[in-house]
Amino acid sequence: MNPVPVFLYHSVVEDPPGWIAPFTVTPRVFTEQLDRIADAGLTVVPLRRLVAALRGGPALPPRSAVLTFDDGFADFYWTVAPALADRDLPATLYVTTGAVHAPGGTPRGSLLPPAAMLNWRQIATLDACGIEIGGHTRTHPQLDTQSGRRLCDEVAGCKQDLEQLLSHPVEAFAYPHGYSSPSVRRKVQKAGWSSACGVGYAFSSPNDHALRISRLMVRADTPPELFRAWTEGRGAPVAPLPEQLRTRGWRAYRRLRARLGRPVGGPPTD
Fold this sequence. Notes:
Elements: E1 6-9, E2 11-12, E3 24-25, H1 27-39, E4 43-44, H2 47-54, E5 64-71, H3 75-87, E6 92-95, H4 120-128, E7 132-135, H5 148-166, E8 172-174, H6 182-190, E9 195-200, E10 213-217, H7 224-231, H8 245-259
Parallel strand pairs: 1-5, 1-10, 2-3, 4-5, 5-6, 6-7, 8-9, 9-10
């Protein structure tokens, strides 16, 4: 299996709220990127096929790619899904369940600032149309700063929320901000998730870990030349990558701030 670009998107919208704007692309850029993927001769496969290959199952086509979307923004329903359907492309949508709007109601609550988010009826419709629905916790915390009952509620409770709505198992999980740790990954596995995505800013590979799949985040400032390089198997390292000392130090600092009741944010990273 060649290195696999697992693309990570958030919102696809013209005028996003300021807090998510750096992590968005416009609809025009998004369709150009889908066309670039096709022009490069990549075969977009469902995430579950990559997971099966990582676990020793059938190999992927020689040049494969995966599309993933985090958080559950409303524009997925109105903009992203039609573009994918027009091209018959599979994708996985990771939902923060506390941010989901009940039809005619309000969300349970999450740490995400205000934005237009999907409602449960739209999520069920997307599921019925073939979009894989995955979990992204209930409130979008930095999981590697959580423990005990709170960690369990975020990881297992999210799964319960989605399976209650969809009436079938959900198996794909993504770590908010890309943050995880060995203990978090054990909790994810124990909860019954069969795969989990981080960020990593790297290609996935035959040696990648199914509970720490590396992705390439597409941002507002991602140059077209870099996106082209990704579609050609260039421009990023290949997972798995050893955890850097600065990553461990950043995790320790964030944990300390969380214990002091003054949590600190940070850019999505691995």
